[in-house]
Amino acid sequence: MKVEAFDRETVKPSSPTPHHLSTLKLSLIDQYAPSAMYTPLLLFYPNTINIANSFSDNHQATIAAAQKSKRLKKTLSQTLTHFYPLAGRVRSNLYIDCNDEGAEYVGARTKCPMSMVLKNPDSEMLREFLPLDTESEEAGTGPLVLVQVTFFECGGMAIGLCISHKVGDASTLATFMKGWAAMAAADLGSGTTLLPEFGAASLFPPMEQYCCSGDSNLEPSSLDLVKKKCSTKRFVFDSSKIEALRSKATSENVEKPTRVEAISALIWKVAIQTSRKMNSMRPSVLCQCINLRKQMVPPLSENFLGNLTDYFAVKTEGSEIDLKGLVAMLRKGMEGFKEDHGKGKFDWERRKEKLEVFGKLPKDDGIDNYNFSSWCRFPFYEADFGWGKPIWVSIAGMVFKNIIFLLDTKDGDGIEAWFIFEENYMALFESNKELLAFASLNPSVI
């Protein structure tokens, strides 16, 4: 498969950012976010106008692709006017210079049919539909948003979106995509504009306010995830298997496990078993990323941008691994997290200490650390730019060890799990019989 870029352009906001909005401070959580990492998203759209065959032979398909690309660039420009910080650049890990330098847009095409990608999704192949590698130094100094729109010879289309992790989390990614799609719908006269909210620094004051003491240890350092030669695999849990798993995980301590609790506990159990097969008896820690928007007092709008995430960590050192017990640990960790945040107060020193501990975990050779991030219930499948909703939403391009992503399937009832493990570890992990009893390894999307 060859993906060829035919259009590269810097897209700037359709209207200049007012002078009084020229800077936006990073929050403390933004400052600790990875400085060389983009958060990726891929959306695949089927052909809705029955145009087929190659770009070289089909003039109508070429015109249709050009028209789509033109509308996407136009509405991206309009969207950046409302999401103006994302058209700027990060400065000194302190603030965003909202200077309207713009987002990078790439138009591309491939003679590969989209069905080939969807029948056997491959993580390396999927990287071809992103505008750049997700592990890029540009994330901390260059464009904060990059887009690649790839047109297939069958008339289908893939939109690859990358947002710098320095300025936003998965919820920010979802809000931007939702806002862009809403702008495209509004351009057709069938939608309303989405307005984002900013100001995370007022909730989580940045480090600069505490540097007056001259203590050099107060200089923020970004989370440095472990990058190794890893393998990425996709497992899909359908709704019936999830219900069976939830039933198996039920106990007196947790009468109704959530989908995410049951699947996370199973994955953690299999991960621990895999480590022990490799003669590792180290303690095992599961870190669960939490969206703070609903946990704040009062709750924040889902359209609030920035890195508004925290985490809780649970640890097991016992020789016995029980699914019900692991679910109970996850529930207790979440309840403790909610109780902690229910106070509605920001303890800067405690948050700073927590971020530093979290930042050190991936490099601690004395433990096995697994980082879970659930993207379930984000409205990615609602992103309609005027040509229908996506047939598949996915991630690709991550290369950091021991990260697990959970995403909804299109029907909203199943869950796709993406695992990133070292290659020799993955070979044992993916063959686990208990895992395969509840999940299918990389089934066809269509």
UniProtKB/TrEMBL annotation:
It comes from the Eukaryota. Pfam families: Transferase. The keyword Acyltransferase applies. Keywords: Acyltransferase, Transferase. GO terms for molecular function: acyltransferase activity. Signal peptide: none annotated. Transmembrane segments: none annotated. Belongs to the plant acyltransferase family. PANTHER family: F21J9.9, HXXXD-TYPE ACYL-TRANSFERASE FAMILY PROTEIN. This is BAHD acyltransferase At5g47980. It comes from Ziziphus jujuba. The gene is LOC107422497.
